[in-house]
Amino acid sequence: MKAIKITTAEGKSLTAGLEDAYWISVEYRIFPKKNIAEYNVHAVVLRPKSKEIYHEWTPSEPNSQNLKLEMIDTDSVDLPLRNRPSTHRWNSEDELEPFCSFCGRFPSQVNNLIAGYTGHICDECIQICSDTLAEIKNDGA
Fold first, then answer.
1. What pLDDT score was predicted for residue 10?
2. How many Å apart are CA 38 and CA 28, to the nearest integer?
3. In a domain, 30, yes or no
4. How many helices (H) and strands (E) does the chain have?
5. Could you tell me if residue 91 is inside a domain?
6. How confident is the model over 40-53, as a mean pLDDT?
7. How open is the CA angle 56-58-64, to the nearest 5 degrees?
8. Distance of alpha carbon 40 from alpha carbon 24, whole angstroms
9. How far apart are CA 11 and CA 64, in angstroms?
10. d(CA 80, CA 24)
11. What are the tens digits of pLDDT across the range 55-82?
């Protein structure tokens, strides 16, 4: 299978991939004020008529500022840190579309859908959360 191998300047490596992955990506974040850097590897498996599955690998050495990336052929990879449903799923027209992570509705079913790093939330769910927080605050007063 195709996989991504990441090697740090310290010689530690992470190999990530899936036999049926639709795509594999590396996200590299730099925090200049803290003088640190971190990365994650993501892979998505598409399953028609159902949710896609999102796999994530996080290195044991999070502050690696010099990385070597390679696409390799391999029979084994490191185990993902976590697997979870993705931020998109198949709609009735067989197209991938974002959906609310709380209620499951598509953008055409709500007024607004706000994107986050690992999910989306619609305006109706935001209102429910806001009302709930207001009730909690009022009950505690």
1. 78
2. 6
3. yes
4. 1, 10
5. no
6. 65
7. 140
8. 11
9. 10
10. 12
11. 667 665 556 667 888 999 999 888 776 5
If you average pLDDT over every residue of the chain, what do you get? Answer: 79
Same domain, 6 and 64: yes
Sheet with 2-8, edge to edge strand ranges: 13-16, 2-8, 67-73
pLDDT at 82: 59
**Which residues is 115 bridged to in the sheet?**
120
76 and 7 assigned to the same domain = yes
Provide the domain limits for residue 12. Answer: 1-86
Question: What angle (nearest 5°) sits at the alpha carbon of residue 90, between those of residues 89 and 93?
Answer: 150
Q: Which among 55, 59, 57, 26 is positioned nearest to 43, based on CA atoms?
A: 55
- Which pLDDT value is given to residue 119? 80
The model carries a pTM of: 0.53
